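Z., the sequence and structure:
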Amino acid sequence: MTVASGRSRTTWGWRHRARRVPSKTPMRAGQEGGSKMVASIGTNESWAAKQMQRSGSTPSGSQRPPVTTRDRERLMASAAENVVRDAGASAATVFLKVPGTPELHAAAVALTALGAGAVERVSLDDTTFPSSRAWQTGRVEIGDHVEITAGHPNLTVCAPFPLEAATAPIFSQTRRFGTLTAFWVRVGVQPTELERGRLATAAASLARDLDRLADAGMSMAPPRVPHVVAVQGGGARDERLASSTAPLIYHLHKLAMLLATAVHTRDVADLAMERVMDGFQAKAAVLSLVDGDRLRLAGAAGCAKEFVRTLNGSPLARRMPETEAVDRQQQRGYAAGDTRTAGRLPEPLSDQDCFWVILPLLAGQRAVGTLSMAFGVGRGDIVAGQGTLTALATAVGQALERTQTDAAQHALADDLQRALLPPVLPQPAGVVCTSRYASATSGIELGGDWYDLITLPDGQVVMVVGDVQGHNTAAAVVMGELRSGVRAYATEGHDPGVVLTRANQLLIGLETDLFATCCCAWLDPATGRAQMATAGHPPPLMRTADGRIESLSLEAGMPLGIDLATVYEVTDLQLDPGTLLAFYTDGLAGVGCDVDPEVVSAAFDVPGNLESVGDQLIRGFSKSPPPYADDAALLLVVYEGPSAEAQRNVHQLRIHRRDLQGAQRTRRLLREWLAGWELSSMADDEELLVSEVVTNGLVHGDSDVYVYVRKYPEHIRVEVRDSDPHLAQAVTVPREEDQAEGGRGLVIVSALASAWGNSPSGRGKTVWFELPMPDVHGADA
């Protein structure tokens, strides 16, 4: 890595700079102008009391805390450092309790070169750790490597070598702050009575100091990242050098562990920025990602706003430190005052006080982004820790590559999955329906759940829900073939039993070794007559117009794909107007469970608002226990009444995605429909809202748009459906690309409609709103 000066072409070698690291602990960021503060163990007058006396403050008379949060962290780190020295430990950690939670978080760590394995979070309910036992008992507790890793095997990554531990509570007479834990790298030798005594004395002294700070108003909440200091002995120069970089290695180690479990790219960026700013104690940092031929901002802290705006979207062809790091795939360093990094820091920071390190984030043979960091000129540990910075860039780069690849694969799988489902469900006269689909898997796994609603030429309706065994590409392919087959058999006019019989023969003929469950129902909207059959699938729940929930008793046949001779029995039903049928797959309830009828009853609390019912039912899907999580498909159908009568109260329109006159045509037809209902007085408000929602769907949905207008006794309901799964956003400040229509359509809808919603619906979404009838509106006024 090179550090280039703006005034000359002189090159600094990191190795040459490392030789000049002083033997004493280098001053860390935030310590400029001050001396090292040490809290002596067992002294009569504590450090906190001395600081209050020097400032002329007392707890009762203080108008503000006598010391800063950084001073509080140094106080705790000094107490931990003394324990390491006096008790011969490899590391010591001060834990503070997180307010409102049963957890202890590390607030300060003192460590030697072997102390990077300290734990940062401890649950007070987990007695595996001596910290939680010390909190509960108020005594010094001990633990060993075998006991701790038996309960937490993943912690062997933290400390692959054997450890012995002892913890003392940090309790005053009136407060319980946390615990002080010391670690020793040794096998089978428990802490001696002398070591435990010194630990207890240090914890008691620290408790008195923290008590005084708490009296003065200082918060005792732990920081996001612990303050880490190195404990240096009097050994050789190489040992002192290794010790000076121990805090950097500690934070790198913790960051690598956290990145291993990060799921989203946003999580990786947040974790990296947090460690760099709070752990490495950078003055400023910015993380950017390579997006095609440009750099895109992923995170920034401590930087000038103009610099952040300039970096975001910068072409890789533009010469700047970040693009050079990407092009050369090498760390780049820029000395304080270098003109190439001028203007990156806001006031009161000065370019003369900080040098910049630019890391290319590498994944394999390519750079996926950059991490730029500014440090104070006194940070000799950063100069000496070139290897640590290389490891930092590698860890972050590989995590970004993994999460971006996972996100792309998941998006592809999700798109493929949804492409096999109907884009928009038809809304035949006398029937209102909606659907929901939620995936329980990530990566490239595909599920076999599906639903469908088929309108026949004579106006009758067929409803289908099914689930193919497995979570893979084969299951998705079989699902697509079964859905096509069932649709073809139903369109031919067969009853549900025959449809399932032929689907069973189709699946067996595919020779896939997979089976599937399926429920098929037929409805004549003109009369309310219905037929149902099921092939190993749970029957739908039925909610009658008077609010009763009934579990239908159907003759359950064999699942599809098992026995070629299976015959499926058909059950006849008569539906009254207002009946709700809820078809679902087992992922909605969890394997081996039934959907709670009370959930459906509670969800269906607004007559005619089927979208809200679907939202509430699918919301419970995320609460399924992870071991039993499965994809969830939901099809809700309401029989509103005879189609001849319902047809007079329902109008619908399909607008092609390329129809530039679609919004204008919708406004004209809406006025005609309202006039036919003798509701022309509502036309202005209805026209405004419909225009906003339809325009939003055409511009941002990039799909055909379906408009449904329904007249109910109390209100007019409008539903606009499209095939874009991304929910519309209500924004008060439009984006640049939204200037044509203002970008505030949903804000207007929210302000004028008596009720509205924005719901995912299978492959797409539904934006709906309601306006009260003129007489209802007048009565309310």
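The mean pLDDT is 80. The longest helix spans residues 386-419.

Let me know what you think.
H.
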